[in-house]
């Protein structure tokens, strides 16, 4: 994990939450591109609402083992596409050598209109529409960052089932 990232040529896909980075990488992988999907390995989408329902995150050691296994199978002569990530994906730390290599790699930025981002998030986070208790628990984690009043507004939109407005507010006020 300390040496392999330096031997690979990464291209990092950036974009705001809901811009379709994961979908783009999935489509590119299906078309034969080399993709390192850290979020899939971490069983987390990387945001405060990113936990996957019914799928716990692996241990840190298991995550690192999964990353190492993927890195070992990547070809040095082909570029590796990877989504921009912070140091942590959920509760897991991305290996430092990989983070450094990603930060030094060329980037591609996705510029997705807000309405399309809302549509994508409504599809990808559909489980929260069905489990409002889980959504409210996750939103409670943001009170220190945004205050009770703003989180209360978001929760009110969710309680009313005004999902487009809720996701739009979340994207423009948090992400």
Write a structural description.
The chain has 9 helices and 6 strands. The protein is α/β, with parallel strands linked by helices and 175 residues long. A 4-stranded parallel β-sheet has the order 2-3-1-6, with helices on both faces. The protein has a two-stranded antiparallel ribbon with strand order 4-5. A hairpin with a 2-residue loop joins strand 4 and strand 5 (92-93). Helix 7 (132-140) packs antiparallel against helix 8 and helix 8 (143-160) runs antiparallel to helix 9 (163-173). The longest helix is centred in the last third of the chain and has 18 residues, at 143-160.
Please give the structural blueprint.
Elements: E1 10-14, H1 21-30, E2 34-36, H2 38-42, H3 60-73, E3 80-83, E4 88-89, E5 92-93, H4 96-103, E6 107-109, H5 114-124, H6 126-130, H7 132-140, H8 143-160, H9 163-173
Parallel strand pairs: 1-3, 1-6, 2-3
Antiparallel strand pairs: 4-5
Helix pairs in contact: 5-9, 7-8, 8-9
């Amino acid at each position: 994990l300390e040496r392999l990232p330096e031997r690979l040529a990464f291209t990092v896909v950036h974009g705001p939450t809901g811009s379709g980075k994961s979908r783009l990488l999935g489509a590119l992988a299906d078309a034969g591109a080399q993709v390192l999907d850290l979020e899939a390995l971490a069983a987390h989408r990387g945001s405060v609402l990113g936990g996957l329902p019914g799928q716990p995150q692996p241990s840190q050691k298991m995550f690192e083992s999964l990353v190492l296994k993927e890195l070992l199978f990547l070809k040095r002569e082909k570029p590796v596409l990877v989504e921009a990530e912070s140091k942590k994906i959920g509760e897991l730390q991305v290996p430092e050598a990989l983070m450094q290599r990603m930060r030094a790699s060329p980037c591609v930025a996705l510029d997705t209109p807000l309405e399309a981002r809302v549509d994508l998030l409504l599809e990808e986070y559909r489980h929260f529409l069905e489990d409002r208790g889980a959504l409210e628990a996750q939103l409670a984690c943001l009170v220190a960052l945004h205050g009770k009043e703003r989180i209360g507004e978001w929760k009110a939109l969710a309680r009313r089932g005004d999902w487009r407005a809720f996701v739009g507010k979340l994207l423009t006020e948090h992400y």
